[in-house]
Design a protein that fits this description.
551 residues, alpha/beta, six-stranded mixed beta sheet
């Protein structure tokens, strides 16, 4: 009888996980339908997120040639080895695998992202053995956080981070339900890869390390230090050898070097000033998120709300002496706190805000797994007397108790609803990018021009002969207007070409010594005028951009 019950239970668990795995796909389909489109109408060149161009073209070059034959960099910087951009090439592995299996086109990363999230939800629900109520919470909060669907229908690596961290946390939760060496190994593997992708995700390597130390004592300490050390060395090597130098340092560590160069007293004074200013700036952004719909502030508020709820639940678990669950949620809260401090100390506010979305994403799944909220075992909801009450009164009391027990999810859901729906006024951060006939024709025309005029050199690669300078923006020839280049034309570059994102002042100052063979600039700008004056050959035109061959 027991075996039969287990068999039935496992079947129910499997089909529940399978049904929940459709959640990401349904959210994407519904969101597209609400705008009168389908997922197939998503068109990456219609997006204003220029990071997507770099990710897409790097994967394209890897799939065709093993690595891009032109450099991806900034102001003509390039990696010491091969030709990747400033961000870790480890971020590209899911798309690379998808492209190897199914081919690569403008919709490939979208389908890959959706599949990754579907797989992540399936594995999470399966691992944690989520019940019906917990699945409903996941579905509600997932749907109320539109950044899931927005990033799925893009070529940004956030979805990879979302998916891996969700599975990681599912393994951690499942480990505390039933300890298993395979789950611990999975946590180590995922947290190590995540750290190589985004260094701040190293906070999630701490939990399996602590578990291993607790279980194996000195042997666990040595093993954990070895794993952490190897991960750190690998990240440093990848960052040093395989990443191009960005316009500015990716992390601001001046607060630390001040102690070394100016002494402890001045270093502490400058650190205090930095913290004061950045915390004030953080909450100014939060206020604008509440009142104006500023996306940066909205991300900050969502992050803070989830972090506070995690703290409350952690304290509740510890008060109940539910040590395992308290440690699990406590680690997640401390990870949030560490990321918040890192944001204040080392990141620019606007650029750093998108990194908080990964934490919000895993926080949604963690909140959904809380055992009925913090009041589930709270005796204040139990009637001390045995007196009978009318049936309607009993039902009302039960309903009120259920609502109260889910107050954390309700608070989180209402916060998301307000911030990411009612106040989501900035199309740049929330709006999906769909194709238009005019844009498709422009891109096809540009691709034909480039195929005829741009020849990829395959000797001594990577090479600047396969590089296109992308001038981000430039003043008009009369100097009165600032013109932004429609970089989307660069999606039409033949596979293997590299792109060097450059500021106009760099190009102007280095005009006679530019290393790249091609240059893409805004039509009617000062650099365009310089190119015409030198009678450089036009190899392609489209949108408001023109591409010249410099030599």
């Amino acid at each position: 009888m027991g075996k039969l019950q287990n068999h039935v239970h496992n079947h129910i668990r499997f089909y529940r996980a399978l049904l929940m795995s459709l959640l990401p796909l349904v959210c994407c389909v519904v969101r597209c339908l609400l705008t009168g489109h389908s997922i197939a109408d998503i068109y990456l060149p219609a997006s204003d997120w220029n990071d997507e161009l770099f990710y897409y073209k790097q994967v394209e070059g890897m799939l065709k040639y093993g690595y891009p034959y032109g450099y991806f960099g900034f102001n003509e910087s390039h990696a010491l080895v091969l030709s990747f951009a400033a961000w870790s090439p480890v971020l590209l592995w899911p798309w690379l695998l998808w492209g190897l299996l199914f081919g690569w086109n403008l919709l490939s990363p979208v389908y890959c992202n959706i599949f990754m999230m579907m797989l992540a939800v399936f594995l999470f629900v399966w691992l944690v053995k989520a019940d019906r109520a917990q699945c409903i919470r996941i579905a509600v909060l997932f749907a109320l956080f539109p950044l899931f669907s927005r990033y799925m229908m893009s070529v940004m690596p956030e979805i990879t981070c979302f998916a891996m961290l969700i599975v990681y946390w599912g393994l951690a939760y499942s480990y505390y339900q039933q300890e298993n060496a395979g789950k611990l190994a999975g946590m180590f593997a995922l947290s190590t890869i995540m750290t190589l992708m985004r260094p701040y995700l190293i906070v999630f390597l701490a939990l399996p390390m602590l578990i291993l130390i607790w279980k194996k004592k000195w042997a666990g300490l040595v093993g954990s230090l070895c794993i952490g050390g190897v991960t750190g060395v690998l990240y440093i090597c990848i960052n040093h050898f395989l990443a191009a130098e960005y316009f500015t340092a990716l992390f601001d560590v001046s607060w630390l070097t001040n102690f070394i160069h100016h002494g402890f007293a001045q270093g502490l004074q400058e650190l205090t000033a930095k913290l004061t200013y950045n915390f004030a700036d953080f909450f100014r952004n939060c206020y604008r998120g509440l009142t104006e719909g500023l996306a940066t502030g909205a991300f900050f508020i969502g992050f803070l709300v989830v972090m506070v709820l995690l703290l409350i639940y952690t304290i509740t678990c510890l008060r109940r002496k539910e040590w395992k669950e308290g440690i699990l949620y406590g680690h997640l809260f401390l990870s949030f706190l560490a990321m918040w401090i890192a944001l204040i100390l080392m990141y620019k506010m606007q650029e750093g805000s998108k990194h908080l979305l990964t934490f919000i994403a895993v926080g949604i799944f963690a909140l959904s797994m809380m055992k009925g909220g913090v009041n589930e075992k709270n005796e204040e909801f139990e009637r001390p007397e045995k007196a009978e009450t009318p049936a309607n009164g009993k039902r009302s009391a039960r309903c009120l108790k259920k609502v109260a027990s889910h107050w954390m999810v309700i608070v989180c859901g209402l916060t998301f609803l307000y911030l990411y729906y009612f106040m989501a006024a900035d199309a740049y951060d929330y709006q999906l990018c769909f194709q238009t006939q005019e844009l498709v024709e422009e891109m096809e025309s540009a691709a034909e021009q480039m195929e005829e005029s741009m020849v990829l050199q395959t000797q001594e690669v990577p090479s600047y002969d396969n590089d296109v300078i992308w001038v981000v923006a430039d003043y008009s020839a009369d100097g009165e207007e600032w013109l932004v280049t429609d970089y989307q034309i660069l999606y039409s570059l033949p596979a293997g070409f590299g792109i060097s994102c450059c500021y106009a002042d760099y190009v102007t100052a280095s005009f006679d010594t530019l290393q790249s063979k091609y240059l893409c600039t805004v039509a009617g700008g000062t650099i365009d005028a310089l190119c015409q004056e030198r009678e450089f050959t036009v190899v392609a035109e489209g949108l408001n951009a023109v591409i010249y061959q410099l030599r």
